[in-house]
Amino acid sequence: MTSTICSLNRFEDPVVIKKPMLRPLAAVLILGVANLAPACLTPAFAAAGKITFVSQGGTYQEAQTKAILDPAAKLLNITVNQDSIPDAWPQIKAQAATGKPIWDVVDTPTSNCLRGGKEGLLEKLDFSKIPNGAAMPEKYRTPYSVAYEFYSTVIGYNKKSLKKVPQSWADFWNVKAFPGTRALRNDPQTVLEAALLADGVPRDKLYPLDVDRAFKKLQQIKPDVTVWWTSGGQSAQLLHDGEVDMTMIWNGRASAVRKDNPDVDFTFNDGILQDTQLCVLKNAPNLPEAIKFINAAVSPELQANLPLYIDYGPGNPAAFKTGKIDAKRASELPSSPENASKQALMSEEWWASDAGVQAKARWLKFMQ
Asked: What pTM, to 2 d.p., does this model score?
């Protein structure tokens, strides 16, 4: 069986796969499944089973389709219908409220999984039925989700315009020793971590974040930040065009810029490792198939396929032991054992807590 992509959109990537699109979800909830585009549903009737899988679209979802979704569909003899949305949280809430969701499995930030589980919107996973997930490190799963892919927030820089290149957030903050124009993300997540790392907090001692200390450190560099970027595309453009000499940037964006501009490079040193995880909506219409799909999707063999198509790391570290990922490719991936050891693992649990919510509110005042 194969998977069918019905809409795409992630990290401002353009839509490149031309397929009939799902109607807007609100319309689906009103009109019912019978009115969906035929291309999205026809394969399901011939399959032994089906699920609806949701991710963030773009080249990321294209890569998943080739690396994981199509192989899992074939392995399980099911059809994997696909939808995409940049932010799944509002629709997770909307579908759960009906008691009859349309989606089954969602690839979404871990904070959404934690929040959804707490609010009763997601199924609690029985890991005895997901042995591939159970074998993963405990820090890579929650009661409601399991790690699917990793990416990193890193320091990107222009080797040509800088006399010395930054290799840590302490270097980034040191405007005297590392003169040049700088950009940071306009978001407290990762920026507060970077500030604390710059202030000497060990990577494994970041949480709970000392928010007062982080904002004090941010006040030091705020006058020297040329741009506070708001999208991955903007951060890449700033670095590519030489508008800034160094910037906080996602590793996938930095890799793409480096391929096009040899003056640009980045480091995983002091990176902030983040993941998205797979979760299942409460009362999912195809729950048994959804659980089987998750087990297949996080298997080492299928996880090891992902880096063949995109610069994101597998969520299951056992993927690096399959022999599919050579040493050179592993050195380019955020979740390889060597690169992961240089980084801090973001605590989505902390950001989903009251303290995290308060830190986000404080950020808005800081940026005024």
From this structure: 0.84
In contact, 367 and 184? CB cutoff 8 Å: no
Q: Is residue 30 scored above 70 in pLDDT?
A: no
The pLDDT value recorded for residue 34 is 31
Tell me, what's the pLDDT at 48? 78
Give CATH 3.40.190.10 domain extents, the chain. 3-149+275-340, 151-273+343-366
> CB pairs under 8 A, 24+ apart, for 138-144?
139/345, 140/275, 140/315, 140/316, 140/317, 141/277, 142/110, 142/113, 142/114, 142/117, 142/277, 142/349, 143/117, 144/113, 144/114, 144/116, 144/117, 144/279
Question: Do the Cβ atoms of 309 and 62 come closer than 8 Å?
Answer: yes
Under 8 Å between Cβ of 265 and 82: no
Angle at 113 between CA 107 and CA 115, to 5 degrees: 145
Contact 218, 195 (CB under 8 A): yes
Helices (H), the chain: 25-31, 38-46, 58-64, 70-76, 89-98, 110-118, 131-134, 169-173, 188-198, 211-221, 232-240, 251-260, 287-297, 300-303, 327-331, 337-340, 348-351, 354-366
According to the model, what pLDDT value does residue 38 have? Answer: 34
pLDDT attached to residue 297: 99
13, pLDDT greater than 70: no
* Banded pLDDT at 47 (limits 50, 70, 90): low
State pLDDT tens for residues 160-214: 999 999 999 999 999 999 999 999 999 999 999 999 999 999 999 999 999 999 9
Q: Which fold, 3-149+275-340? A: D-Maltodextrin-Binding Protein; domain 2 (3.40.190)
- CATH architecture of the domain formed by 151-273+343-366: 3-Layer(aba) Sandwich (3.40)
